[in-house]
Design brief:
With 284 residues, the chain is an alpha/beta fold. The protein contains twelve helices and seven strands. Bound molecules: S-adenosylmethionine.
C-alpha cells in the first residue's frame, strides 16, 4: 500500500524529470537518451517491454493475421531493439523496423545480425510525428501493413492527429494497422508495485520516465477521437488484454493493462479491396 509520502516522492520526481528533459513532445531527444543507456536486452535485460515474442508479437499475430494482406510489407513502427520485428520476419516476406531513435535502430541491426530472419529485415530511423517521412517511405515501398506495439500511448495529444496522418499514408489503400497500447491505468499498475528507484517506481519503469518520456495511455475515447468512424473502420478490437513486461526487481513479470485495435482507413474500403469488402460486410 502506497502512502502520501510515496505519492509526493513520485510527483516531485516527475516534475524534476520534466524540468530536466523539457517537453515530452521531443520524441527523438528523449527516446535517444533512453536507448543510449541500454546495455542489455531480453528476459534479464534493462528494457521494460522486451519480452519474448511468444508473450508479445505471437499473441498479436493471432489477432491481426486474419485481417492483413500478407503479401504487403510490414512496418514495425517504433520497433525499438527489433525483437518483435525478427519474429514478424518469420511470417512476412519483408519487415521494415522504423524508430525515431538512431541508438535503437543501431541496436536492432546489431541484434539481428546473423539471425535466420536477417534477409527479410531492415531497420531505419524514422519519425511518425513528421508526416513527410511517411510520404517518403510510402513512395518507396508502397502500401504497407503496420504493426505498432506500445508506441502511440507516449505520443502527446497535440501530435496525435499528425501521427495518425503518417499511419494512414503508410497504409495507403491496402494496408491494415494493428496497434496494442497501454491503457490509462497502466502507470497506476506500476505505481502499486514495490519500488526500488528514487521515484518509487520499479527501476526499469523509472529509467523510461526519467528521460522525459511521458506515457498518457490510449483509451476508448482516444479511439473515437483519433480514428473516427467516418474515416476508419475497426476490424477487430480488445479492451482487456495485457502487455507483458520482463521480470522486474520484485522478481516477476507484470501484465500491464492494454487494449488493441485492428484498423483500416475507410477510403481503403471504398477502393474495393477484397479485404475491404469483407470488412464492410463484417461491420454491417
Ligand atoms: C515502448 S517502446 C516499444 C518498442 C517495440 N515496439 C517493442 O514492443 O519492443 C516505444 C518505441 O517507440 C519509439 N518511438 C517513440 N516515438 C516515436 C516516433 N515519433 N516515431 C517513431 N518511433 C517512435 C521509441 O524510440 C521506442 O523504441
Amino acid at each position: 500500500m502506497k502512502t502520501v509520502k510515496d505519492a509526493m516522492k513520485f510527483y516531485s520526481h516527475v516534475l524534476m524529470f520534466r524540468l530536466q528533459s523539457g517537453s515530452p513532445r521531443q520524441y527523438r531527444k528523449q527516446w535517444e537518451s533512453y536507448w543510449r543507456t541500454i546495455h542489455a536486452t531480453g528476459a534479464d535485460g534493462e528494457v521494460l517491454w522486451d519480452n519474448e515474442p511468444a508473450k508479445a508479437a505471437a499473441e498479436d499475430l493471432r489477432r491481426f493475421a486474419p485481417h492483413m494482406d500478407a503479401r504487403l510489407p510490414v512496418v514495425d513502427l517504433g520497433c525499438g531493439n527489433g525483437r518483435q520485428s525478427r519474429f514478424l520476419a518469420r511470417h512476412f516476406e519483408r519487415v521494415i523496423g522504423v524508430d525515431v531513435s538512431p541508438a535503437a535502430v543501431e541496436l536492432a541491426r546489431r541484434e539481428s545480425q546473423g539471425s535466420p530472419e536477417e534477409g527479410r529485415l531492415e531497420f531505419r530511423v524514422w519519425d511518425g510525428a513528421k508526416p513527410g517521412e511517411a510520404e517518403a517511405l510510402h513512395a518507396e515501398i508502397g502500401d504497407a501493413n503496420i504493426y505498432m506495439r506500445t508506441v502511440f500511448h507516449c505520443v502527446q495529444s497535440p501530435d496525435r492527429p499528425r501521427f495518425v496522418t503518417s499511419l494512414a499514408t503508410l497504409l495507403g489503400a491496402q494496408g491494415t494497422l494493428y496497434q496494442i497500447e497501454l491503457s490509462k491505468s497502466a502507470l497506476d499498475t506500476f505505481r502499486q508495485l514495490p519500488g526500488d528507484s528514487p521515484s518509487g517506481l520499479p527501476t526499469l519503469v523509472h529509467n523510461v520516465v526519467r528521460n522525459g518520456i511521458h506515457p498518457i495511455g490510449f483509451t476508448p475515447r482516444d479511439r473515437r477521437r483519433y480514428y473516427p468512424d467516418e474515416r476508419w473502420i475497426v476490424l477487430a478490437q480488445g479492451d482487456a488484454v495485457v502487455i507483458n513486461t520482463v521480470r522486474l526487481a520484485h522478481g516477476s513479470e507484470v501484465q500491464v493493462p492494454a487494449n488493441y485495435l485492428v484498423l483500416r482507413p475507410r477510403r481503403a474500403l471504398l477502393a474495393g479491396t477484397a479485404g475491404g469488402d469483407q470488412a464492410l460486410h463484417r461491420a454491417g
